[in-house]
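Give me the 3D structure for EamA family transporter.
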Amino acid sequence: MTSQARGLATPAQARKLHRGTLAAFVAYGMWGLLPLFWKQLSAVSALEVLCHRVIWSGLFLALVLLSQRRLGEVLRIWRERSSALAVVACAGLITLNWGIYIWAVQVDRVTEASLGYYITPLLSVALGAFLFHEKLDRWAGISTGLALLGVAVATWRLGSLPWVATVLSVSFALYGALKKKAGLDALSGLAAESLLCMPFALIYLAWKHGGAFFTGGPGTATLLILAGPVTAVPLLTFAYAAVRIPLQRLGFIQYFSPTLQLALGLFVLGEHLSGPMCFAFGTVVAAVLLYILSRPGQNRASA
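Predicted structure for EamA family transporter (303 residues):
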């Protein structure tokens, strides 16, 4: 009896799964380490860094799609009214997400940003049930409710909403939901979004007479250009992983990124958590673990 007939992975399938899993860890690892990169640009305003991220990532992704002879996909997006409107909405959401995240790193709020990315997957589960009528089982509902309760109690104790975490989680969860509903490809969709925002970024930089790109020295200019590849390379790595491993495994690995961000904030960048924020983290992490452990059958199927 062959390994395939016994339900075991063939050597080729095992290699594919291994490479996909490694690529997923690399992608989320790069995203988790991004605060170290944005921290190098703390002398440049967050809005200016955002503009360069939009410009250089759009150009980099356009070159990647051109090399793959897929640039026509970006043009096809604009030919359909529904996909074009989705790109406009997604462009607004991802620009907001990028801008808030860059600013959060610059003002030493990496830990709060990491909380947002812990919440995002649970919020995506709730949006899936609301927008796509996906089945929300009891444990998924309890996990989502527990995470929201933790944030609500932290808000009450702090006297204000942890708005960085809230904006990052809501904007990215909505971004993912819109892309799914419109059926937008990760690479061509992001290229279309970046190219849409590029004229506005160029106008702002022209108004600033080039800003830090010309006044900050060659080191700063190089870092600003690298904002393009730094944005696109993790996405390309993620796209490689997403077609090679089960979504359940990919969903589990995604928590590697906010965990790295949290560790960087606490142990490298010298940030501190207040009591209410510790409570919020505790409940959100508990909710994440509850969600993961409540679906052993799915985990076994994905192993």
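The chain has one domain: 11-302. Let me know if you want a second pass.
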